[in-house]
Write a structure and sequence with these properties.
Length: about 475
């Protein structure tokens, strides 16, 4: 360790101070470690300006903050996006194993400030590349899929930037199993930077709580089974990243989803991925065609084993990383624990009744059950019993036989049609379920746009459509609309 460099930065106060007007701020650390570093900056023609730092805690934290401010001041967006803890430690002449934590915090604060500056900017930050290449922004999550998506774009010759959204923060969560935690952001940044791709971190935790978590909690409180991923993948997550892509002069946003798009002559629509076992078009159904036109799915024609093989051949550290949990904010706490912790939905014993209203058992709370569920009822009966309905008002769960689940009519609310309703020929009522042939009922087929309600008439019975889940409307293999099962 070069003590001279370390001491110089420890005494450096030239950039110490509160953010200047128009600056964006990012911080890292806090009560858990006792060290807190904050970096602020603004972007001036794609370069960091007015860089300031604040730091408290150990000497290493204070020196690392000063060194980070020095490295950022005047740096271009690409250079700043590649800044990592190793570069900060090197600027300080090396750090001990204990002091290395300070460089990690400084890098995290810097990238949060950088992402905040990009996300809040008005208009273009960077001009398109002048060398004939196209620029692509890639959404990286710290998993193998998004890492390979970035790799394929880079190998295709694109000028690539990476972005990761920090969406949820809860000490009760398992950060390693969540794709939207601070832990995941750090892994994503290291994966991108290892490929020489500049990385941006954008904090959307407030937006995620308001737009995804609160409706999720409200849905369960009302006795429904909401599908937060579709809401998240729409206006909450992907649309802001498309805007950032535009600000960076990129032609589009690439993600690691298993999906494809096709223009049917009236614009882009979702169509299934090559790997039916990984197809994610259901989870992306909330995206409007205008946003789909700006998206690219580099994995759409690949299978999961092929993606892992590509990652292994490229030496990506996440080649064998396990899949993240679908509902990222439940990682480590589970649904019941999350509903109790954040929604106040504690267990409350209630009645289980049959279709005639006879009490046949007790349950720990209506929010633990969903339509179509069989396990967990704990009721002995001559034939298997299934949940037919839940009533949040009375805290009752209604059960019946398998045949009682069947219906040929499904009502959906808050529906959106991207194409005329006459084109709807099938519906997916659950993720991973097969499409069911249907038509939209009524004397006239509805036109494109928003509809308060639509009634679907099915050719064959559907088994227990769950209120709150998403109905994805299809024309062959194209997604042409969606709504919420009422």
């Amino acid at each position: 360790m070069d003590a001279t460099a370390f001491e110089a930065y420890l005494d450096d106060s030239s950039r110490r101070g509160e953010p200047l007007t128009g600056s964006a701020r990012g911080s890292a650390g806090g009560a858990a470690c006792g060290d807190l570093i904050a970096i602020s900056l603004r972007l001036d023609e794609g370069r960091a300006a007015d860089v300031r730092f604040e730091a408290s805690g150990c000497a290493a934290a204070r020196a690392a903050a000063a060194a980070t401010a020095e490295l950022l001041d005047g740096a271009g967006l690409r250079e700043a996006g590649l800044l990592d803890a190793a570069a900060i430690a090197a600027e300080l002449g090396g750090l001990s194993a204990v002091g290395a934590h300070a460089a990690d915090l400084a890098a995290e604060a810097a990238h949060r400030a950088l992402g905040a500056a990009v996300a809040s900017a008005e208009g273009a930050i960077l001009a398109p590349p002048g060398d004939g290449r196209e620029r692509v922004l890639v959404a990286v999550s710290g998993g193998v899929d998004s890492a390979v998506a970035a790799l394929r774009e880079r190998e295709a010759g694109a000028d690539v930037f990476a972005v990761t959204l920090e969406l949820w923060s809860d000490p009760a969560n398992d950060g390693e199993r969540s794709c939207c935690s601070a832990d995941a952001v750090r892994v994503a940044r290291s994966v991108a930077q290892a490929q020489g791709i500049p990385h941006l971190t954008v904090d959307l935790r407030d937006r995620f709580r308001a737009g995804v978590v609160e409706p999720f909690l409200a849905g369960y409180a009302a006795g429904e089974t909401p599908n937060p991923c579709i809401r998240c993948n729409g206006r909450i997550r992907i649309e802001p990243m498309v805007r950032i892509a535009e600000q960076l002069g990129a032609t589009g946003l690439a993600t690691g989803h298993y999906a494809r798009t096709r223009d049917d002559g009236s614009g882009a629509l979702l169509t299934a991925a090559a790997d039916p076992g990984k197809d994610q078009t259901y989870m992306l159904a909330g995206l409007p065609p205008a946003v789909l036109a700006r998206l690219r799915f580099p994995l759409g024609g690949l299978t999961k084993p092929e993606v892992r093989a590509i990652a292994a051949a490229a030496g990506l550290a996440v080649a064998d990383k396990a899949e993240s949990q679908d509902l990222c904010f439940l990682a480590g706490v589970g649904k019941a624990g999350f509903l109790a912790r954040h929604g106040g939905l504690d267990d409350r014993e209630g009645e289980v009744v049959d279709t005639a209203g006879n009490v046949v058992g007790r349950h720990p709370g209506h929010h633990r059950f969903t339509v179509g569920q069989r396990r967990g009822l704990g009721i002995a009966a001559p034939e298997p019993l299934y949940v037919l309905a839940t009533d949040a008002t009375t805290n009752r769960v209604v059960v019946g036989g398998e045949a009682d689940l069947d219906t040929r009519r499904v009502r959906i609310r808050d529906a959106t049609l991207h194409r005329p309703g006459a084109r709807v020929g099938a519906v997916k009522l659950r993720y991973r379920s097969r499409p069911l042939a249907c038509r939209i009922g009524g004397p006239e087929a509805p036109g494109p746009g928003r509809h308060d309600r639509l009634d679907l008439e099915l050719e064959a019975p559907a088994r227990g459509p769950a209120p709150g889940q998403t109905a994805v409307l299809c024309d062959g293999d194209l997604v042409v609309g969606h709504g919420t099962i009422a």
